[in-house]
Design a protein that fits this description.
319 residues; alpha/beta; Quinone Oxidoreductase, Chain A, domain 1; Rossmann fold; 2 domains; seven-stranded mixed beta sheet; six-stranded parallel beta sheet; 10 helices; 23% strand; globular; binds NADP nicotinamide-adenine-dinucleotide phosphate; metal-binding; ADH_Zn_CS; zinc
Length: 319
């Protein structure tokens, strides 16, 4: 939990008694927790929380008890969640039953905790925000990161031509292994020109931009007329403000700033999206790459690893 926003060391382990699950709740004994970059924004105060606050959005585990009105979930079932309110950084918690999805046999608890938040993000970005078609050129910024790798591999499996960016040559190699046809180091000089040289001047039908401040204006320049810039994060800081007229000048572009939570707020839609993700995992479209594991009480070290930009793939916390 955090009592105050600030650096990773502000997180503290607390012991809090757990009530019996309410009529529509389920008690989950958690076996794996997924780290997500939003945890950093919320811990640091880039996104303000009402304090003191628990932290974390995503975990998998086993049902230990069910409330009196819960009919479709049973004790012993393996489940995961990504939109059940803050508090995933824990060994045990009560979760509203309609926020849980049962896990199929081919998805382990660790795989689920490593993918349910990031994979559901890739799912809505590729299927709902800008449905990607075979032959589309897609740019994925931070393509070696957690969401970035899933997005790149899944877009490739959908038939897109995928161009990734990342912050080092090593990360570019990871991005290519994840599915990018081309990967450009955006810390190198003139990286925008290098990208356009590599694509022979072709621009993207959609740019998925989670980096924000350092990439956003370039994203507008790398999008083809009538294409879409999807700003879905701010890892380098908030994107600069722009006048709407710039979208006209850059080629009648579409701009959106979506979030995974509204896309999965409706329980039926959440389970349908999760079924699509599990299907993609089963077909090998989504590969789960676990980059690092930490004990739950070492969550500060996990945050420092992510903020230091030396991680690739998913980071897990193990209770
Ligand atoms: N809107 C939504 O629905 C939604 C949902 C989930 C995640 N997201 C966003 O998607 C992004 C990826 O999330 P993730 O959890 O998978 O994290 P991640 O990609 O594993 O980590 C963030 C990546 O951003 C890049 N980055 C660029 N500037 C950075 C900076 N100043 N500090 C740290 N990293 C920086 C780093 O890659 P390089 O070193 O290669 O630059 C880093 O690997 C995040 O921005 C997150 O907020 C949005």
């Amino acid at each position: 939990m955090i009592d105050e926003h600030g650096p990773a060391k502000n997180m503290a382990v607390k012991t809090i008694p757990l009530a019996e699950p309410g009529p529509n709740d389920v008690r989950v004994r958690q076996t794996a927790i997924g780290f997500n970059f939003i945890d950093v924004y919320q811990r640091s105060g880039a996104y303000r929380l009402s304090l003191p606050s628990p932290i974390g959005h995503e975990a998998a585990g086993v049902i230990e008890a069910v409330g009196s009105d819960v009919t479709d979930l049973k004790v012993g079932m393996r489940v995961a969640y990504m939109n059940a309110g803050l508090g995933a950084y824990t060994d045990m918690r009560n979760v509203s039953a309609d926020k849980l999805v049962p896990l199929p046999d081919n998805v382990s608890d660790e795989q689920a905790a490593a993918t349910i938040f990031k994979g559901m993000t890739a799912q809505y970005l590729l299927k709902h925000t800008c449905p990607v078609q075979p032959g589309d050129m897609v740019i994925v910024h931070a393509a070696a990161g957690g969401v970035g790798q899933i997005l790149s591999g899944w877009a490739k499996a959908l038939g897109a031509f995928v161009v990734g960016t990342a912050g080092s040559d090593e990360k570019c190699a990871i991005a290519r292994a994840a599915g990018c046809d081309i990967a450009i180091n955006y810390h190198s000089e003139n990286w925008v020109e290098k990208l356009l040289e590599a694509t022979e001047g072709r621009k993207a039908r959609v740019v998925y931009d989670s980096v924000g401040k350092h990439t956003f204006l370039h994203s507008l320049d790398l999008t083809q007329p009538f294409g879409m810039v999807v700003l879905y994060g701010a890892a380098s800081g908030p994107a600069p403000e722009i006048a709407p007229e710039i979208l006209n000048k850059k080629g009648c572009l579409f701009l959106t700033r979506p979030s995974v939570f509204p896309h999965n707020a409706d329980p039926e839609r959440f389970r349908a999206n999760a079924a699509d993700l599990f299907d993609a995992i089963g077909r090998g479209f989504v590969k789960v790459q676990i980059g690092a594991r930490f004990a739950l009480e070492d969550a500060p070290a996990a945050h420092e690893l992510a903020e230091g930009r030396s991680s690739s793939g998913a980071i897990l916390l193990v209770p």
